[in-house]
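Re: that chain you flagged

S.,

Sorry for the slow reply, it's been a week of failed gels. I finally had a moment to sit down with the sequence you sent. For the record, here it is as I used it:
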Amino acid sequence: MSILQNTNKRALRKAITTTLRELSQSDIQSQSQAITEKVLSLPAFQQCKTVSCYLSMPAAEVQTTSLILNVLGDLGKTLFVPSITSSDGSMDFVRVYTEEDYRSFPSGLWGIPEPTHEWSSKKRQSVFDADCDNLDLILVPGVAFDRSLSRLGHGKGYYDRFITSYSSSTGRSKPILVALALEQQLLEHGQVPMFDHDWKMDMIIAPDRVITAPQA
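Prediction finished late last night. Pasting the structure tokens below so you have them in one place:
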């Protein structure tokens, strides 16, 4: 990884973050609602049984509360959300059981709800547990994306490390990676720098389009 590539990532992250902070809450909510409707109509989403969705910040990214409540209200789906608890920077996905459970999460860093370690006096199920079904689909956040399905995260590497770790687990296949992008986060082909350890998305959902990889 070159110093120039690292610098390009930092500069792009800063520029996009500045733009996102200037968006009104009503604009973000309007775009988020359009994106939510597109996700709910996706065959890949409708068919999946085990789904992960990020818990959104109060601003500057696609809001996910409606998606989370939809999954929790679907008896055919099981919901998992990100949980960062270890000092080594690794991320797990833990189960959310009910709407009441979700709404009881305390607010953590950047105003993001944080799942508690236990629910009903029992440790939350992890996607790495032996008795957990395979994770079918992950709704992925990010700072920016481009039309070649590249993703720029917040610079911590949580998602890239998780996907690599999960996909290399015995008997686990890579989940479908679905990025959620406000129109201000979607760039042209090749504008997001990518390194060997960076995972490309399988699709990007924006307010007015769904971007997928070209069929071979």
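What I noticed first: The radius of gyration is 17 Å.

Talk soon,
D.
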